[in-house]
TrEMBL record, chain A:
Membrane topology summary: Multi-pass membrane protein
A cellular component term, taken from the record's GO annotations: plasma membrane
Residue ranges of every copy of the ABC transmembrane type-1 domain listed in the record: 99-299
Protein name: ABC transporter permease
Species the sequence originates in: Hoeflea prorocentri
Primary location: membrane
Lineage: Bacteria, Pseudomonadati, Pseudomonadota, Alphaproteobacteria, Hyphomicrobiales
TrEMBL record, chain B:
Annotated protein name in UniProt: ABC transporter permease subunit
A single Gene Ontology CC term: plasma membrane
A GO term, aspect molecular function: dipeptide transmembrane transporter activity
Subcellular location: Cell membrane
Principal subcellular localization: membrane
Cross-referenced Pfam families: BPD_transp_1
Keyword Protein transport attributed: yes
GO biological process: protein transport
Topology class, membrane: Multi-pass membrane protein
Recorded superkingdom: Bacteria
Length: 315, 258
């Protein structure tokens, strides 16, 4: 890909992110209910004019909306995410350790889903109609039709209460992460394996497979060696819905397994109108989804240069 | 998945939705009646699923809890199909000034994570069914619109379409007469998946503690309320969990023929 195309892609991603963040910035501030009033109520103090003015100044609410946005944007880029309206602490300091937990669950779940899904999809393509094929199909159905918190709670009940294999709330970091990562992965394995299976199946029907078999390669080796690229192309083209699922799935996993991640704080911020926390969360989620989509498009282009370099939905 | 196989679920689904409808309006006990002399009792003839930590009848609460799920399904299917079809026609037949932005919106909406959208909309409208429905509609109309417009584009090349226009029928009339019958199978499959997703979303928001009215029974909110009893009284958690999972699964399997 030329440098120009790469620059164009990065620029498009940046513009989409700015648009998403700006829209949410305005929407959040249209919420009925003044944060200073809510804060005063919560603290049980009378919201006199002087106090309100002081807080509005301290929280930067006395600037115009456009000024507020640019102040916030500069802060976000320089990792100064403002002051929480509820705790009064720095949002960056508060969210950083939570972000680490959430990212561990999200990335862990995604990597696990890709590994297991690829394995399952490959086995399914190798023996169509076999056990791996039906398992991958059932997982795809389950991923669509079952609520994540239900599966999470059942897993918690089974592994922690009945079998007593894990200490999900008080064990070591790894022990606490096993079930959340497995839960996030569980809901993506099905779709990943179906995509990978489609990719390998295309190769299995290609004429060069016959040549590879005639050369003396086993079916397994031939399929893996020649179909890997096609499977990867289909996977990066179809994984977009899972990028969004990772965010929602991580939120549910955190609540089910009592992980002190981002989501717990965000649910709390919703009820207390904690703008800076909500705004940082939206910016992070948008960053993950938009750059994820563009990264997929870039990968797809690298794997198959005939495909354009922008995400199909942007073109 | 063949259509014969998914037809097998139809009676089950009808039975299920029928029970949900019935349960939403009739329960053996008052789902709110607190009885502190009879807390955490095990299942009996009087209380089919026992009672909770406040002595309320769990079976009655499960039945009453079907109501928010049913409303969400109704809202989502009605508005997604309405909005989706309208947008699909706008993409397919509107002038470029209309069709381009609508198509762009639809493609953007495809990437919206439903749960996160619901969470954020709850910040705007307050936690409740309104935020949940708005999020569902916002993220579910797009597939309808895009598949409808793709269908329109294909059908526009068909001779019978040109013939019907040549015979003098209006575009709206021709869409109604020739497009909708063709669109129905695809729309039905999407609607089934969405009905299942609506149930899951309502319950997930309730579970996160963001359902409208914590006093009113709702499956996800019940799981949220009872989850401290997961180890001591698993029945309290399993009942709403299974109700949600079964409802979502059955609906998804019945109408989704993909």
């Amino acid at each position: 890909m030329s440098w120009l195309a790469a620059m164009r892609m990065a620029f498009m991603a940046l513009v989409s992110w700015l648009a998403a963040v700006a829209v949410s910035f305005v929407l959040i501030r249209l919420i009925p209910g003044d944060p200073v009033d809510i804060f005063a109520n919560r603290m049980n103090v009378h919201a006199g004019d002087e106090l309100v003015a002081a807080y509005r100044q301290a929280w930067g609410l006395d600037h115009s909306l456009i000024e507020q946005f640019f102040i916030w944007l500069k802060g976000f880029v320089t990792l100064d995410w403002g002051v929480s309206f509820v705790t009064g602490g720095s949002v960056s300091n508060e969210l950083a350790p939570r972000l680490a937990w959430s990212a561990a669950i999200g990335f862990g779940g995604m990597i696990a889903a890709i590994c297991f899904g690829t394995f399952l999809g490959f086995r399914a393509a190798l023996h169509p109609g076999g056990m791996a094929d039906s398992l991958s199909r059932s997982m795809a159905v389950a991923g669509q039709a079952l609520p994540a918190f239900a599966v999470g709670l059942l897993a918690l009940w089974l592994f922690a209460a009945e079998l007593r294999w894990l200490l999900p709330f008080s064990g070591s970091t790894v022990e606490r992460l096993v079930l959340p990562v497995a839960l996030v992965a569980f809901f993506s394995i099905g779709s990943v394996s179906r995509l990978v299976r489609t990719g390998f199946a295309e190769t299995a029907a290609a004429p060069f497979m016959r040549t590879a078999l005639a050369k003396g390669l086993s079916r397994k080796t031939a399929l893996w060696r020649h179909g890997g690229r096609q499977a990867a192309i289909v996977l990066v083209a179809g994984i977009a819905p899972d990028l969004a699922w990772i965010v929602g799935g991580t939120a549910i996993a955190e609540i089910v397994f009592g992980i002190p991640g981002l989501s717990e704080r965000v649910v709390d911020a919703v009820s207390s109108r904690d703008y800076p926390v909500l705004q940082s969360y939206i910016a992070l989620v948008a960053l993950w989804i938009i750059f994820g989509l563009h990264l997929c498009a870039l990968l797809r282009h690298t794997l198959d240069p005939r495909i354009g370099s922008l995400p199909s939905r942007v073109q | 998945m063949t259509s014969e196989r998914s037809h097998n679920y139809l009676p089950v689904a009808l039975l299920f939705v029928g029970t949900m409808l019935l349960g939403a309006y009739w329960q053996p006990h008052n789902p709110h009646a607190v009885d502190l002399n009879n807390v955490l009792s095990t299942p009996s003839l009087e209380h089919w699923l026992g009672t909770d930590h406040l002595g309320r009848d769990v079976a009655s609460r499960i039945l009453a809890g079907a109501r928010p799920s049913l409303s969400a399904i109704a809202i989502v299917i009605a508005s997604s199909i309405g909005l989706g079809l309208a947008a699909g026609v706008a993409i397919g037949f509107g002038p470029p000034a209309l069709s381009r932005p609508v198509r762009w919106l639809a493609q953007t909406a495809l990437a919206l994570p439903t749960l996160i959208t619901a969470l954020l909309l709850a910040t705007l409208f307050g936690a409740g069914l309104l935020a949940i429905s708005a999020a569902l509609v916002a993220s579910t109309w797009a597939p309808y619109a895009l598949s409808m417009s793709a269908l329109l584009e294909r059908l526009r090349g068909e001779p019978y379409w040109l013939a019907s226009l040549a015979l003098g029928s209006s575009v709206t009339g021709a869409v109604y007469r020739h497009m909708l019958p063709n669109a129905w199978p695809a729309i039905g499959a999407l609607a089934g998946a969405d009905a299942g997703r609506a149930i899951i979303l309502v319950a997930s928001m309730g579970f996160l503690g963001l359902s409208a009215d914590t006093g009113r029974p709702e499956w996800g909110a019940m799981v949220h309320e009872y989850r401290i009893f997961l180890f001591s009284e698993p029945r309290l958690v399993l009942a709403p969990v299974l109700a949600t999972a079964m409802a979502a699964f059955v609906l998804n399997r019945t109408l989704d023929r993909s």
